[in-house]
């Protein structure tokens, strides 16, 4: 069946978290806004700011949530934009803006989200029964799904999914007995009554905090741009700190103890991490190449998995969540194997946990690119506790051995 979304002007409905499209006020609203700042929601380059953004470079364009922008050029993670309020131009992070007069400006709409990732997000801390989101269907192009968190006395917190079907002449429904002209109207209705759903819609799912893309072409950075705030831990080769880049962007900073490792080897780790880009791997931002050398990565608020599982929150995790966290780690390791790399130091201390309990693999200090297998040089150091027995006996490492440490971490 065909699925047509309305392109009419959106007007906020008081005391709600969604917007209702009002066809009767569309033309007058457009004329008023156009005369004020030459803004038209029908312009395909018209965007709305979803979050506040404070630029760190001279060529960045700062803005406030709700500001109207015109995108001049879309390229990579940073887009060239013009503020329709100040008329200034500059670069903005692409994940901080959404095209105007589309579902992407709705708090409850999550465009590119898989069913499994939806369940992870809705079951993350901060959400409760009745938390919900609408996403694009994975199986039916042009259709949508409503995902709702519920509590089952037998299974605890669960996520239930409802297919939103489209009418040929426009409109949407979950049950054929009740149809709606727009998704906004559908959401509004089910916030007032469950009417067949597992629970009445309570509030939009809390999204992951947006991660500001790293500044363009800032790979080797001056030491003065970093501020170390809190020591998070120490290892064989150095320390890890929480800090800020240019006093605005929170980051993790890894230092190298002088004399414990050749600077070239430390920088090799940085170059390795830079090549590996995946949602389940800690992202490398930049390096300071003069001694003492620093590596700057994204900051994960819950620290390493080993410590997190010992906290009150970690001890309360149920088996299904622990299994899911293991699956996330496996996703990252599968990517590493696909790229013909071996981590060689996979353990709970090298798995970092985000605010929404997403896991990412960190510390590639012992990683090594391989063609098929890698034989350690005589005297090479590697973690005995998490190393496969055949690797210890023969000094040979292959990607097939990575399942051993995954089970013991």
UniProtKB/TrEMBL annotation:
<feature type="domain" description="Protein kinase">
    <location>
        <begin position="226"/>
        <end position="409"/>
    </location>
</feature>
<dbReference type="InterPro" id="IPR001452">
    <property type="entry name" value="SH3_domain"/>
</dbReference>
<dbReference type="InterPro" id="IPR036028">
    <property type="entry name" value="SH3-like_dom_sf"/>
</dbReference>
<keyword id="KW-0597">Phosphoprotein</keyword>
<keyword id="KW-0727">SH2 domain</keyword>
<dbReference type="InterPro" id="IPR001245">
    <property type="entry name" value="Ser-Thr/Tyr_kinase_cat_dom"/>
</dbReference>
<comment type="similarity">
    <text>Belongs to the protein kinase superfamily. Tyr protein kinase family.</text>
</comment>
<dbReference type="Pfam" id="PF00018">
    <property type="entry name" value="SH3_1"/>
</dbReference>
<dbReference type="InterPro" id="IPR036860">
    <property type="entry name" value="SH2_dom_sf"/>
</dbReference>
<feature type="domain" description="SH2">
    <location>
        <begin position="108"/>
        <end position="205"/>
    </location>
</feature>
<dbReference type="InterPro" id="IPR020635">
    <property type="entry name" value="Tyr_kinase_cat_dom"/>
</dbReference>
<dbReference type="InterPro" id="IPR011009">
    <property type="entry name" value="Kinase-like_dom_sf"/>
</dbReference>
<dbReference type="Pfam" id="PF00017">
    <property type="entry name" value="SH2"/>
</dbReference>
<keyword id="KW-0728">SH3 domain</keyword>
<dbReference type="InterPro" id="IPR000719">
    <property type="entry name" value="Prot_kinase_dom"/>
</dbReference>
<dbReference type="GO" id="GO:0005524">
    <property type="term" value="F:ATP binding"/>
</dbReference>
<protein>
    <recommendedName>
        <fullName>Tyrosine-protein kinase</fullName>
        <ecNumber>2.7.10.2</ecNumber>
    </recommendedName>
</protein>
<keyword id="KW-0067">ATP-binding</keyword>
<keyword id="KW-0829">Tyrosine-protein kinase</keyword>
<dbReference type="InterPro" id="IPR017441">
    <property type="entry name" value="Protein_kinase_ATP_BS"/>
</dbReference>
<keyword id="KW-0832">Ubl conjugation</keyword>
<feature type="domain" description="SH3">
    <location>
        <begin position="42"/>
        <end position="102"/>
    </location>
</feature>
<keyword id="KW-0418">Kinase</keyword>
<dbReference type="Pfam" id="PF07714">
    <property type="entry name" value="PK_Tyr_Ser-Thr"/>
</dbReference>
<keyword id="KW-0519">Myristate</keyword>
<keyword id="KW-0547">Nucleotide-binding</keyword>
<dbReference type="GO" id="GO:0004715">
    <property type="term" value="F:non-membrane spanning protein tyrosine kinase activity"/>
</dbReference>
<keyword id="KW-0472">Membrane</keyword>
<dbReference type="InterPro" id="IPR000980">
    <property type="entry name" value="SH2"/>
</dbReference>
<dbReference type="GO" id="GO:0005886">
    <property type="term" value="C:plasma membrane"/>
</dbReference>
<dbReference type="InterPro" id="IPR008266">
    <property type="entry name" value="Tyr_kinase_AS"/>
</dbReference>
<keyword id="KW-1003">Cell membrane</keyword>
<keyword id="KW-0449">Lipoprotein</keyword>
<feature type="binding site">
    <location>
        <position position="254"/>
    </location>
    <ligand>
        <name>ATP</name>
    </ligand>
</feature>
<dbReference type="InterPro" id="IPR050198">
    <property type="entry name" value="Non-receptor_tyrosine_kinases"/>
</dbReference>
<keyword id="KW-0808">Transferase</keyword>
């Amino acid at each position: 069946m065909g699925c047509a979304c309305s392109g009419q002007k959106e007007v906020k409905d008081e005391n709600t978290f969604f917007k209702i499209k009002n066809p009767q006020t569309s033309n007058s609203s457009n004329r008023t806004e156009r005369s004020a700042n030459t803004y038209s929601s029908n312009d395909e380059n018209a965007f709305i700011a979803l979050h506040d953004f404070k630029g760190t470079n001279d060529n960045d364009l700062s803005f406030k949530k709700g500001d109207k922008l015109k995108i001049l050029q879309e390229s990579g993670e940073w887009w060239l934009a013009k503020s329709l309020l100040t008329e200034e131009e500059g670069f903005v992070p692409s994940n901080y803006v959404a095209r105007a007069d589309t579902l992407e400006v709705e708090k409850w709409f999550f465009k590119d989200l898989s069913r499994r990732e939806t369940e992870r997000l809705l079951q993350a801390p901060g959400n409760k029964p009745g938390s919900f989101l609408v996403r694009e269907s994975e199986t039916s192009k042009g259709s949508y799904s409503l995902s709702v968190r519920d509590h089952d006395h037998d299974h605890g917190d669960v996520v239930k999914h409802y297919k939103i079907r489209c009418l040929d002449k426009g409109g949407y429904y979950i049950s054929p007995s009740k149809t709606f002209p727009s998704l906004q109207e559908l959401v509004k209705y089910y916030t007032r009554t469950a009417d067949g759903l597992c629970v009445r819609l309570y509030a939009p799912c809390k999204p992951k905090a947006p991660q500001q893309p790293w500044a363009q072409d800032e790979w080797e950075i001056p030491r003065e741009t970093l501020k170390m705030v809190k020591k998070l831990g120490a290892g064989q080769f150095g320390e890890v700190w929480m800090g800020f880049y240019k006093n605005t962007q929170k980051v993790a900073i890894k230092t190298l103890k002088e004399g414990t490792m050749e600077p070239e080897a430390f920088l090799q780790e940085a170059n390795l991490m830079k090549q590996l880009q995946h949602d389940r791997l800690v992202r490398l931002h930049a390096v300071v190449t003069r001694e003492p050398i620093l590596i700057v990565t994204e900051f994960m608020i819950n620290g390493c998995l080993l410590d997190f599982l010992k906290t009150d929150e970690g001890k309360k995790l149920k088996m299904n969540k622990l299994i899911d966290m293991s699956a996330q780690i496996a996703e990252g390791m599968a990517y590493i194997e696909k790229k013909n790399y071996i981590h060689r130091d996979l353990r709970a201390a090298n798995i970092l946990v985000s605010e929404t309990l997403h896991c990412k693999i960190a510390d590639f200090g012992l990683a090594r690119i391989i063609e098929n297998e890698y034989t350690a040089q005589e005297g090479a150091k590697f973690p005995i506790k998490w190393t496969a027995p055949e690797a210890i006996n023969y000094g040979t490492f292959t990607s097939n051995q990575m399942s051993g440490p995954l089970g013991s971490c």
